[in-house]
Amino acid sequence: MRAAKRFVSLLMLLVASFGAAGCWDRTELNELAITSATAVDWEDGEWSVSYQVVIPSAISNAVSVTGGGASKLPIIVYSTQGKTIREAVGRSTLESPRHLFFSHTRVVVVSEAAARQGLSPLLDVYFRNPDSRETVSVLVAKGNARKILEQLMQIQIIPGDGIEETLRKEAEEFSALPNVRIYDLALSIVSPSKSAIVPEILISGGQEVSSADALSKTSLSSKLRLGRLAVFKNDRMAGWMTREEALGIAFIRDRIKTTTIPFSCGQGGKQKIDSAFKLTRSSTRLTPKKDGDGFTMKIEVEGEGQLLETDCTKELSEPSVARQLESQLELEITDMIETAWQAARKMNIDVVGFAEAIHRKYPKDWKRMKNNWPSGLAEIRIEPSVHITIKRMGLTNQSFRTLTEKD
Amino acid sequence: MPLNPEKIGSIQAAVLISMAITPTAAIVIPTVSIGASGQDAWLSVLAAWPLGIGFALLYGSLSRMNPGVSFFSWLDSRLGRAVSVIAGLLLAQYYLSVASVTIRELVNFLSNELLQKTPVAVLSAVPILIAVYAASGGIEVIARISALVYVGMIMFLALGIGLELNQMQPQFLFPIGDAPLPRLVESGLPSVGWLSEASLLFILAPYLSKPRRSTAIAIAGVSLAAVQLSLIVLLVLLQFGPELPGIMAYPAFAAAEIIKYGSFVERVDLIFICVWVATVYVKLCIFVFGTVHCFTHSLRIKAAKPFLWTISLLIFLHSLYSWSDEATFLHYQKSVSTAFLITCNVIVPALLWLGLKIKRRPPASAGESP
After folding, report:
1. pTM of this prediction?
2. Which chain A residues are Cβ-neighbours of B178 within 8 angstroms?
3. What are the pLDDT digits (tens) for B261-292?
4. Which of chain A's residues have a Cβ under 8 Å away from the Cβ of B257?
5. What is the DSSP code (8-state) at residue B362?
6. What is the CA angle A10-A14-A15, rounded to 5?
7. Out of B118, B175, B258, whose CB is closest to A25?
8. What are the residue ranges of CATH 3.30.300.210 in chain A?
9. ipTM given for this complex
10. CA-to-CA distance for B107 and A24, rounded, in angstroms?
11. What's the Cα-to-Cα distance from A164 to each of A145, A155, A229, A231, rounded to whole Å?
12. What CATH class is the domain A250-407?
């Protein structure tokens, strides 16, 4: 009896272990099409979604691809169309034997036409579906977004990965264009300012590099490059800002990590740009101040860094010279802020985030103002004040020109 | 079911109370509270804390009157058999309902986030089988496992906070006090409902190694849960601001989903999901045990094991068929659940307390020993 009981228990354990061995959601790696980048276009009243799918077997031969022009490329790009984004994705089964797997997508490139159509459907897809991650970086392309996915990169094997790395490095080391992830975009759109900024990606140069042959040269005929800043009002794209204006916006929004600022060491008027400064730390404080019926926005920037380059003949070890250079830099940054503010005011879009500052400090006034925002933006005056400290002058205390111009 | 001669320590009991509250509350409260009062949601959760302590005082005062027998034997001796049976069946129904809600919450989460093709029946059956096994071991076994899982949960919560620091934007919490009072009340009510689950103390009382500490245990359990819930709401607010969490089904996990350090630390949300699933299993074990305990003790059933299986089957079916779809379940969680929790955990105990105050007589010496 006891033996029988043991046998039944063992049998049950065995049966249970069969059930535990797998589940309905198992996925075999060789059934997946892993996407590294996605592009979204709006064509003839339909969404066109393109996928940059990684070919794992080709990645292991990547050295020969980049070096010797092997026939197998590491990615393949294809597109599907539909009335909704997910319908388009669903149609991928009509032409691909593998199930699209979006968890490793690094970037999503949206065409200008799609961005002007509105990004709410795209955001909904990302927040609703567990296979799409909100950490994907967003970019806008002026023309066809699919073309961006077709472009190969020389150093990075997988272009999607390369674009994200470029964005990340730019945001860290130059800071003009932010690395906007899906959730950043959603947060900006639903914030009191109801606006967002997204970097542009473009193909600069001539013929596209989309074949192994084109890739096997030391100088490519074209390459992927980050460009301007796309500005969104609610979820729709409303216009572009230049990279200089973008840097001013980054100063106002306190998004500068590190950047390089060219400036002139001479005072007054239009002087030749002869020096460069690396801003290694920067912080901005926005303080709204009631000014009659309207508001004045105090923009206080504090930063420090080091001199990277100069062609100036002044004695750099003199504290008075350092102060003068600092004030030149302060003027330069103030100018950037003013330019960016004028651009935002002209577009009548609160990309500078003044709404959040007013909401935080004057919540009652904001309740009154928010229905008319951003039309009240134009009435705001700004008061920028910049304080820069040059912490280090570098390894020489005079420029080389002082030696060459010595009599 | 006679009480086993098992005892649980005060810390174990406080942890059990906290574990009866947080696993499901952590899922629902950020969405509901932030949806109602935006950046002030954390204040509404904190405001629910004193109310929770008020409940703890009520539960503590009732439990301290218990001379160490099961809650229902004691009610029988003080208020009569009818009251004991009615209260027992009512509480059994409460525990059964919360157990099935817990399973449904877990299954919905797993179906939405991870296992979309696995049948709901399979996803429900696995935790219920584990809960049956744990409940058959008794409350002491559950308390020990609960303490272990709790330590893990705290460690991972701290890790989560550390990893999410770079995404936090303190300005999302301002302006403070922007939400009007009615919105704050609406936002805080779910927390009040969940904190009332500290009524678990009634069941734990006869097993406590130091029954005199009942009130302190309930206060500690409620406080642990309130602090955790406030922290989770704050974490979500600091990362997603006051607008987005209201439309998210699982904002606490979405916060873990966006953890990213370069390309070497990312997609760590699965770790947090595993820890949360473990806490849900503990909650389920507690409530399966509670259902069987209330049912068998109020009806003086000696052989509890067959009922453990039958009641578990009932919980399984209840969780499967009570809500036809997710929308119905969400509606239940948002609109019905709080009222149900407050009825079973506050109104019923308050009525019993009143009854006991009115009918003052010395407690009968029940022969049952824990």
Report:
1. 0.91
2. 363
3. 877 888 899 999 999 999 999 999 999 999 99
4. 133-135
5. P
6. 120
7. B118
8. 250-407
9. 0.89
10. 14
11. 15, 13, 16, 20
12. alpha beta
